[in-house]
């Protein structure tokens, strides 16, 4: 499975410049490509709405938060989205290319695998970041 160069460039922009809140990637013609870019003003709700109910996606989300010591921080989450409704073959393709995609995206701090929206709720993201 190839990773399109645009995926790497957009991830670097999110990591270094924080000019995206999230990026959604999809597998198209045996290649991982950028599907959607969420600007810095987008919310977590906008992000979850960008994930289809019946297709696999990879995504990165830049989560900004304030620590108990009142410090502003952010963490980059990698989310492997593989809904339960997916065919087994699609799940296998998604799972087999996930590790390569993560290796190409240096700077991911936390990872979630979700098959249902409840597995990646805002509360879970918040709890995992602290």
The number of helical segments is 4
Oligomer: single chain
Beta-strand portion reads: 25-35%
User: What sequence of helices (H) and strands (E) makes up the elements?
Assistant: EHEEHEEHEH
Taken from the alpha-carbon principal axes, the silhouette is: globular
Look at the structure and give the mean pLDDT: 93
Ends apart, CA distance between termini: 34 Å
Helix content: 25-40%
Low-confidence stretches: none
Largest sheet: 6 strands, mixed
Strand order of the largest sheet: 1-3-2-4-5-6
**Computed Rg:** 14 Å
Q: Which class of secondary structure composition applies to the elements?
A: alpha/beta
Overall number of strands: 6
Please give a quick description of this structure.
The protein has 130 residues and is α/β, with parallel strands linked by helices.
SSE inventory with pairings:
Blueprint: E1 2-3, H1 5-17, E2 22-28, E3 31-38, H2 44-49, E4 57-66, E5 72-81, H3 88-104, E6 110-114, H4 122-129
Describe this structure in words.
By secondary structure, the protein is α/β, with parallel strands linked by helices. 34% of the residues lie in helices and 32% in strands. It has four helices and six strands; from the N terminus they run E-H-E-E-H-E-E-H-E-H. The protein has helices at residues 5-17, 44-49, 88-104, 122-129, and strands at residues 2-3, 22-28, 31-38, 57-66, 72-81, 110-114. The chain has a six-stranded mixed sheet. The longest helix has 17 residues, at 88-104. The radius of gyration is 14 Å and the shape is globular. The model has no long low-confidence stretch (mean pLDDT 93).
């Amino acid at each position: 499975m190839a990773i399109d160069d645009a995926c790497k460039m957009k991830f670097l922009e999110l990591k270094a410049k924080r000019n995206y809140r999230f990026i959604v990637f999809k597998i198209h013609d045996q290649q991982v490509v950028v599907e959607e870019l969420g600007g810095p003003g987008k919310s977590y709700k906008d992000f979850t709405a960008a994930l289809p109910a019946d297709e696999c996606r990879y995504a990165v989300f830049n989560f900004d938060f304030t620590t108990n010591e009142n410090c502003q921080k952010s963490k980059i989450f990698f989310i492997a989205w593989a809904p339960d409704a997916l065919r087994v073959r699609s799940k296998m393709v998604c799972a087999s290319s996930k590790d390569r995609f993560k290796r190409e995206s240096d700077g991911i701090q936390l990872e979630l695998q979700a098959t249902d929206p409840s597995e990646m709720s805002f509360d879970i993201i918040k709890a995992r970041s602290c």
